[in-house]
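A quick aside before the break. I want you to see a complete sequence-to-structure record at least once, exactly as it would be stored in a machine-readable document. Don't worry about memorizing anything.
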Amino acid sequence: MGIEYKIKFNIQSREKLEALLERILQNINIAEAEIMPEVFVKLENDGFYFCDNCGNQNISNRVFRQLIDVALSETSGNVICESL
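That is the input. The structure line, written in tokens, reads:
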């Protein structure tokens, strides 16, 4: 069980965000079922769901910062980050 966050913002272009998310996660081994991934990220209707699985903190910190940067750059409104 990890530490879960919701990064809420107004999504302008889902396709653009999916491409950015893929690029952010490309160097992280998420696909191997026998290994717990460092992070789990999902694009939802109102922003990103982020789960830090408490592995390599350098990786989870970098991914979290990048998600916040993407959210801030993609909206003219507010970005809300909350722990779940």
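Two observations worth writing down. DSSP finds two helices and four strands in the chain. Helices lie at 14-25, 57-74. We'll return to this after the break.
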